[in-house]
Amino acid sequence: MHVTASNGIVDAANLAVCSILDSAEARNPKLTQSYCTLCLDARRLPGYAFLEAFPEKLVADTPQVAPQDVRAPEVPSVMEVLQDLAKTNILKVQNYSKLSYHSVTNLASGPRYVQDTLDQMDDIGVGSLPIVLLSGFFIGAVMVLQTGTQFERFGQASLTGDIVSLALVRELGPSITGLLVAGRCSSGIASELGSMVVTEQVDAMRAMGTDPSRKLVTPRVLATLITLPLLTTISVFVGLLGGMVASVLSLRINATTFWERAIKILEFSDIMQGFSKTVVFAFLIATVGCYQGLNVRGGTQGVGRATTQAVVVASVLIIVSDTFLTKLALYLADKFF
Amino acid sequence: MDLSSSSLTTTLPAVGQAAIEFNNVRLGFDEGEILRGVTFSAQERETVILLGETGTGKTLLLKLASGLLRPDSGSIRVLGKDISGIPESELLDIRREIGFVFQEGALFDSLTVGENVAYRLHEDGVDPDEIEPRVSEVLRFVELAHTFDSLPSDLSGGMRRRVSIARALVTRPPIVLYDSPTAGLDPITSQTIISLILRLRDVYGVTALLATHRLQDGFALANFHFDPQSKKVRRDSSPESSNAAPTRFLVLRAGKIYFEGSPDELMKSQDPYLQRFLI
Questions:
Q1: pLDDT per residue over A109-152, tens digit each?
Q2: Which of A44, A150, A194, B185 could link A296 by a cystine bridge, Cβ 3.0 to 4.6 Å?
Q3: Which fold has domain B18-97+173-278?
Q4: Which residue ranges make up each domain of chain A?
Q5: Contacts of B257 (CB under 8 A, 6+ apart)
Q6: Strand, coil or helix: B236
Q7: B21 pairs with which residues across the strands?
């Protein structure tokens, strides 16, 4: 039984009791004393008065459901759930691959959005400079503090410059800068594009004959590809400066000695290893941010979700790809250099 | 209603050929099929009012007509070209022939009003010296010349819709699609928007699809016309006396065309569902 609020404050349960007792009394007049008492009590319920006044309400408001229509909702099997999950994720990988492919192939033909690329370079490159400088300096310094004390135990404190330099150029510079830029720019790209999607600006762009992939994705990918290696170079340089300051103040190593050893230890393969990583990381940061932003669903809440997803996915991909890139770079260095 | 003068003039195309044709178009999403075999056409210079409750697929029809969405089956022809299966690169060219006025305006919030209106001209590589006069001209047409350097966030809802109309008409497209252009606006602002649409129709002779759930918008377009001589919107004494483009109603229900006909036919209909729109 369904009683709507517009019927007045009538307890649906009252009505149900009254209805059952009433019909039972009608069918069997020889009721016991207790049963009659119960009926009388029931008649005192406010719902009974309502029912007497508006008997049609009970029928009208009761949904007439045919028995055959009442079916338990179908529960999908484990296999169906897994299949759906696999399909959804394969579709995501396919769409991400298409977006990544077009972001590069768009460069081969016009129109090219040079001004948009420069704007993005300013935002991604210049905008990220303060955090890269600050973190780079202190990462170099902390590296010296951590490794220098260990080398001192063996009387080899002068090796600190070598190890810090190699670590920064090969590994820490690219990956820490990549993670910092992912945190700042992947989320920024995702939230900007996501907001454009939910306010139909991307649809408006398409409706006016503009390809969002060319206008929004390619400039961001290109800008990140150009600026991240530069940022990493600056980060490594500042990291070495930080390391030099820390080694002078903490380990009493001569600044010139530290710097000379740090530069001399580097080989071409080390620089190429670090550079190749930054290119891959830059591509991941920009494409993941764009993909998450352009695939926002669910309004402003979806924008927030996409922003978080962009940072998480880009960071995880940077760390995972770093492992494989390191292995590949070591293999290639061993083979060719 | 007096409207400000404009130097915009155009030769009206003849009524006759179908500018937009939907043939048994179906479209569904995860939650089910929304459009279940929609067939209709809009002739050149004709205004077709898409009426229907929320969720019946009015906006989807507009997005399908502009190629922003692809149908699951059926065909859509725009200006004689089948757009249902062509690649995105070819669709971009078709979309340049269509103006789209989005429900909330969909203005680029980081660009000024002038830059928003000029966007399409920049994209088309129009001479920069020519862009500013053309933008100023269309902004005068929508009576918002003073907002040239304003940001969309500084404008009211009605003003944003008018800028959206200006942006849609700056390249003088032969087809304009309006997605609930008066939704959420007060009656006076709604009237201003409808007057603009009337003026756009009667000055430019555009073919229009207008999605709305407000019947009064449809009847305003059917019963009024813009007189270029007096530069005023006038009520038609009779449909025959009007030289305005024809207006037709399509009512959507449960993913199908429930009613298709003239304003008179809609008014005279005794169908209980249609009567609900007329109350």
A1: 878 899 999 999 999 999 999 999 999 999 999 999 999 888 88
A2: A194
A3: Rossmann fold (3.40.50)
A4: 7-69, 113-336
A5: B38, B39, B40, B250, B251
A6: coil
A7: B41, B77
